[in-house]
Design goal:
Structural class: alpha/beta
Distance between the termini: 49 Å
Order of helices and strands: HHHEEHEHEHEEHEHEHEHEEH
Strand content: 15-25%
CATH class of the largest domain: Alpha Beta
Oligomer: single chain
Radius of gyration: 22 Å
Shape: globular
Helix content: 40-55%
Number of domains: 3
Length: 295
């Protein structure tokens, strides 16, 4: 009969509908992942996916299994946590996911101060992309997430934690590089490098909203899938961009210049996330949310 591994692998493929992305998510090669899903289909005697050379699509049987499998794994996580917390010597860790490659000083301070105010509640940290963070919160594999934001959905609550001013980032030899400050429209007048939706959907959404608010129409010169790639494209002269002051404090580079914006109200917000619960949140989660929002 199938086991939990079959279900976890199936959920990854069903949610990603792409073997390579699903394989990255569960940290296996695509070939064994595909074999495991086919084993599950053979054991159940039904097709879970309609396959073409380029696409995967859930069958009605696959959609039904996805709903039930999610509930099964959530109940399992709840049971494991409840059992562990009954042990007198067990200290339940707070499981925190950090998305978007966050490396802000306020994040480090938030975590270090937590050790001081809640020394008996240790934390486990996991780095991941924002879509994976949302999925882990839904499945209750994480208690809290920290991110620039994930796609809006009823299952996930996103609360503002802290803000950093937005800055323009331009190549070292750019015509704007010697300016002490810039307006938003001056920056957007040049071709722009933006974050991809898969890498930092929250940043992309926040910056797009600011540009739309001022009725600006940027020319997109390229997308980046990492902070290093983002700054490299700008440093190479392929375009200009925006970044928060928190990340620019941690990224000292000689090929780009960061310049304050004239409107100090233009900021990027980092959010703290958790799954919407029917009952009251655990005390440790509530305390951490309050702590993060006080930074």
């Amino acid at each position: 009969m199938f086991d939990l591994r079959h279900l976890r692998y199936f959920i990854a493929v069903a949610e990603e509908l792409n073997l390579h992305r699903a394989a990255d998510r569960v940290h296996v090669d695509p070939s064994p992942l595909s074999r495991t899903v086919k084993e599950l289909e053979e054991q159940l005697g039904v097709l879970l996916f309609a396959r073409t050379p380029r696409t995967l699509r859930l069958t009605p049987a696959g959609e039904k299994l996805l709903l039930d499998a999610r509930e099964m794994l959530i109940r399992l996580e709840q049971t494991k946590r409840a059992v562990r917390e009954t042990g007198q010597n067990h200290r339940a860790s707070l499981r925190i996911g950090i998305a978007d490659g966050l490396s802000q000083p306020k994040l480090s301070r938030c975590l270090s101060e937590w050790f001081q105010i809640a020394p008996h509640t240790p934390i486990q940290l996991q780095d991941m992309l924002a879509p994976a963070l949302a999925g882990a919160l839904r499945r209750e594999e994480l208690d809290v997430g920290i991110s620039f934001g994930v796609s809006d959905e009823d299952a996930i609550i996103q609360e503002p934690a802290w803000n950093y001013p937005l800055m323009a980032v331009v190549p070292m030899n750019h015509v704007l590089a010697t300016r002490p400050s810039l307006s938003l429209d001056e920056v957007v007048a040049y071709p722009m490098i933006v974050c991809s939706d898969q890498y930092k959907p929250g940043v992309r959404r926040q910056v797009d909203a600011l540009i739309k608010r001022y009725s600006l129409e940027p020319v997109i010169a390229g997308e980046a899938g990492s902070l290093a790639g983002y700054l490299t494209q700008i440093g190479a002269g392929l375009g200009v961009g925006f970044a928060d002051t928190g990340h620019m404090q941690t990224m000292r580079r000689e090929d780009v210049v960061s310049i304050p914006l004239e409107d100090s109200a233009l900021t990027i917000t980092t959010h703290v996330l958790h799954k919407r619960q029917r009952s009251e949140l655990p005390t440790s989660v509530k305390h951490f949310l309050t702590h993060a929002k006080s930074m």
